[in-house]
Amino acid sequence: MKTILFHGPSGSGKDTQVDLLVDKYEFENIGTGEMFRTMYKEADLEAIKAYSYWSKGKFVPNDLVYSMLNRWIEKFDEQYNWAFVSVVREVGQIPMFDRLLKSHNRTLDYFVHFTLSEQAAIERMSLRTVCPYCDTTYHSIYKVEKVKGYCDKCGTKLIQREDDQPEKIKSRLEEYNRTISPILEVYRKRGVLIEIDATPSIEAIHKEVVTKLGL
Ligand SMILES: [Zn+2]
C-alpha cells in the first residue's frame, strides 16, 4: 500500500491525475473539499464550524481541519493505496499530517508536486469560457464550441469567469508558490519530493506519474 500526497496550483490538473489513479490502481482519493461538503451535509458539528470560515473564503484553522480529517479517514479502505490531495496547505499542518499517518501505520512514500509555469497557467485557464446558464465549460483549444461564443447545449452567450482572467491567474499562482515553497523544502529534505511538469497532455503526465511512483 502506497501513501502519496499530491499538490499543485489550480489549473495543474492534479484532480484529473488522481482520478486516473483511482480508476486504474486501487487508490482512495482523500481530500478536504469533499470532506467539508459531505460532513456539512451530514450536519457534523465541526463541519458547521468550519463552514463559517470557508463560506467567507477564510482559511479553516489547522486543528479543526485535522480533527475532521482524522474522523473522515476512517471511511477509507486500509488495504488500498491512499492518495491525499492538497491536505497540507501550510507548514503547521505537516506534524498533524505525520501523526495522522502514524495512527494508521503508514508513512508518506512520495509528495508529488505538479508544477505549472505562469505562461502555461494563463494559456490553460484564460482560454476557458463558461455558460452562465447551464455551467458547461469550453476551451478555445481543447473544447471548442460549435458557434463561437455561444453554448452548444442551450445557446446562451458564454462568459469568462472572473477567476480565469490573466491578472487573477497570475496573482493566484504567486500566492500559491509563496505558500507551497516552505512545504516543498521540508519534503525535499525528507527525500520524498517528486516534481512533475504539468504542461504536457493528461495522458503523458499520467504515464510519468505511473513510472515515477513505480505502479
Ligand atoms: Zn449552456
TrEMBL record:
Residues 31-60 are annotated as: NMP. ATP binds at R128, T137, Y138, P200. Its EC number is 2.7.4.3. It is found in: Cytoplasm. One of its GO terms (cellular component) is cytoplasm. It catalyses: AMP + ATP = 2 ADP. Pathway: Purine metabolism; AMP biosynthesis via salvage pathway; AMP from ADP: step 1/1. The keyword Transmembrane helix does not apply. CDD domains: ADK. It is an enzyme of class 2 (transferase). AMP binds at T32, R37, K58, F59, V60, Q93, R161, R172. One of its GO terms (molecular function) is AMP kinase activity. Consists of three domains, a large central CORE domain and two small peripheral domains, NMPbind and LID, which undergo movements during catalysis. The LID domain closes over the site of phosphoryl transfer upon ATP binding. Assembling and dissambling the active center during each catalytic cycle provides an effective means to prevent ATP hydrolysis. Some bacteria have evolved a zinc-coordinating structure that stabilizes the LID domain. Monomer. Pfam families: ADK, ADK_lid. The gene is adk. It comes from the Bacteria. Keywords: ATP-binding, Cytoplasm, Kinase, Metal-binding, Nucleotide biosynthesis, Nucleotide-binding, Transferase, Zinc. It comes from candidate division WS6 bacterium GW2011_GWC1_33_20. Residues 128-163 form the Adenylate kinase active site lid domain. The keyword Isomerase does not apply. Residues 127-164 are annotated as: LID. This is Adenylate kinase. Belongs to the adenylate kinase family. Zn(2+) binds at C131, C134, C151, C154. Catalyzes the reversible transfer of the terminal phosphate group between ATP and AMP. Plays an important role in cellular energy homeostasis and in adenine nucleotide metabolism.
